[in-house]
Amino acid sequence: QDHVCSLPKVPFRGAPCSDAAGSQVPYAAIMKQVNSSLSGVLWDEIQKAPFYEYKDSVGQFHQVWFDDPHSISLKAAYVKSRGLRGIGMWNGNSLDYSGEAVAEQQTQAMWQALTP
């Protein structure tokens, strides 16, 4: 089925199915892989988050879900509109701090998106 990726049932802290079945990928790797993926960037309107799909070298299908400046800014705006105290990202050290021009721009955009 298009754009459906079932997670194996891997129990994690009482949940019968969780992201414990997957692995974390640094934002730098995502930004490099997304352009060569099968799908390019896709958008889930319910989660308000981007994702993409690819097949690995043995033909296994994968989905990669991530946040980008647009999805982070929507979440930050929601927090602000509800008068909540703040927002943070899961793992800021997964951004690309290599010093390359594109990486600096992507990293700056992510941090700016946290303050609507």
Structural summary, described in words:
- With 116 residues, the protein is of the alpha+beta class.
- The protein has one domain (27-114).
- It is 28% helix and 13% strand.
- It has three helices and three strands; from the N terminus they run αβββαα.
- It has helices at residues 27-33, 69-81, 101-113, and strands spanning 42-44, 49-55, 61-65.
- The protein has a three-stranded antiparallel β-sheet, covered by helices on one side.
- β2 (49-55) and β3 form a beta hairpin.
- α2 (69-81) packs parallel to α3 (101-113).
- It is globular, with a radius of gyration of 16 Å.
- The termini are far apart.
The beta-strand count equals 3
What's the Cα radius of gyration?
16 Å
The secondary structure category is alpha+beta
Shape: globular
How would you summarize the topology of this molecule?
Blueprint: H1 27-33, E1 42-44, E2 49-55, E3 61-65, H2 69-81, H3 101-113
Antiparallel strand pairs: 1-2, 2-3
Helix pairs in contact: 2-3
